[in-house]
């Protein structure tokens, strides 16, 4: 019997757990053609125009009649999404997860009570013109300070000049929020001098109580900006020195993200991360989730978990604002999944969204914040940002995530300012790319969720305590800033 998984009662399709050929059977249903792992097969007759059901919800409509045993994919399944949405505030009871009261990690406790998972010096250029300068400072200072601090890293970008309005504000907001991050024991701002994103304006966006851990230089006014920068980094490192302390997971801030998803992501890795999200939130910790366009088709499920009518209204505003963003640019809101997602078995945005939102678990949504903002509340926070891996992960770090759980079915080497834990949706990927992957969620299919959850919690605690992620070992640390407007 071919292995396949039906997720919810009433689903009209099952997802293949292994490659299958014509004639292979799923119960009483014989496959009429080969169906790859992660792809869908019809279990019942589906009439043209009828909804196709997976996760217990419609993932689109049938383009034509589909017979039992047929491969269900792009040729016979279409999205049902269009325009902005109309939503109803109808809160549902939220199940209570067991808190992770006995799990701990060794973190850096800051003066304001926040806890970092790393104690690094971050170098943030105000403008792309001094990106290479920032990198040279990081390289020289990092070598000189090896062993005294967890690392010296420059986070470069091409922005900060020839920008107006929303774009300039976004650059400044992201950099100011990164400058406040608890994983940075100190921050050096490197400016050029003539850019729109002036150092003084960036400093003004950083709370006064944080400025003691900030240094800055302006390259046009420095005789030797690299020498000056290295001296400032050394000063910051001496000031930042501190030991790790044992703390509970109530002091952890997790960002949750998926990228390069496949048809198994919504069955293994994403629901596994959702279980971690619930437990951390219930323990009093914080979880941040984003990728707004990858909620289209599943957003009402999230809205039903809003803490109150105000949170619900802000969720509606962010989601419909993103839908309108697509419409204003003449693009269909369903222009997703990506080619890699499609090759992995995901057909429509509804299907992708229903799998993606599982990373947020089932707990209450306590807050909604804008792009570039920092997290305010315990529990689960919705962050405004697009689905793009680099842009959204940077926004998660800027919001205050001290580690990111990043699920993937196709694989990616990318890493971000904070430890980025790559979680494979299938064991084949984990075996093929051990240099990229930190955890194999494909084990869920053999061992069940409870065993995989315990193993993942242990891995998260080890990484939060200093064990390097695959991306950190590969020196993969990037930021990307959302560009929405005019370049001069």
From TrEMBL:
Looking up InterPro entries in the UniProt record yields:
GD_AH_C, GD_AH_second, SAF, SAF_UxaA/GarD, UxaA_altronate/galactarate_dh
Instruction: Write out the entry's keywords from A to Z.
Output: Lyase
Record has Cell division as a keyword: no
Query: What Gene3D superfamilies has UniProt attached to this entry?
Result: 2.30.130.110
Q: Which Pfam families match?
A: GD_AH_C (PF20629), GD_AH_second (PF04295), SAF (PF08666)
Q: Which PANTHER family match?
A: ALTRONATE DEHYDRATASE, ALTRONATE/GALACTARATE DEHYDRATASE
Q: Which family does it belong to?
A: Belongs to the UxaA family.
The identity of this protein, by name, is: Altronate dehydratase family protein
- Organism for this UniProt entry: Sphingomonas insulae
The opening ranks of the lineage are: Bacteria, Pseudomonadati, Pseudomonadota, Alphaproteobacteria, Sphingomonadales
